[in-house]
Amino acid sequence: MNIYANVDPINGSDVRTWCSGSDTVRNRSSRAVLVCLALLCVLLLTVVIVLCVHIKTKSTNYTEERDELLTRNTQLTKERDGLSSMLKPKLVVFTDGWIYYKSSLYFISSEKKNWTESRRYCTERGADLIIINNREEQGFVKKISANVIVWTGLTDRDVENTWKWVDGSTPNSGFRLWASGEPNSGNYGRMDEDCAVNHEPGLADYPCNRVFQWICEDAI
Ligand SMILES: *[C@@H]1O[C@H](CO)[C@@H](O)[C@H](O)[C@H]1NC(C)=O
Ligand SMILES: [Ca+2]
Question: How many Å lie between the centroid of ligand 1 and the Cα of residue 169?
Fold first, then answer.
């Protein structure tokens, strides 16, 4: 009886040992999982923090860079405005006879040629006969031509009485371009007058084969 009684508890304790052993294994593996999860959390948190710091630094850099560029831009704008206000009202006369004024280069000839040849002189130099766009330019022409008669880029050679500048545009009606009584081509039995000169009172049409000085303009 005692033997059996002893055996049973032993068997029972064996079973218990086996069971508790299994518990220990299960506890250990779930602890490992917990530790792993905790480590993962820490790792993720670290990654998030590192990224946050990185992005913050980057955006701070960009903000600084942008502010620097804006400051530089303001400086350059000021410099440019200063320079252009220094240059704008000025007239620059180059040694080859070309004159810079208000975004155009002008050349007044000393030779005299007919309209076609005058125009050819200009186009061969990347310019064309002058186009008088406004009153101010008209005043400038008056000054540089000293009221001598000069060919301009205005003609009605294509369609009689349809006056066009050499760039195909029609004259600006906002100021008085022609001298009084002009253009008068064909009046009083005169010969055809298809090309316009500028002289003291304003523009006048003349026969294109007449020879005059001329003004080239290169709008730059
Ligand atoms: C202009 O002058 C050139 C050279 O003298 C001449 O060959 C040409 O026929 C003239 N053109 C006109 C329209 O008079
Ligand atoms: Ca012009």
Answer: 25
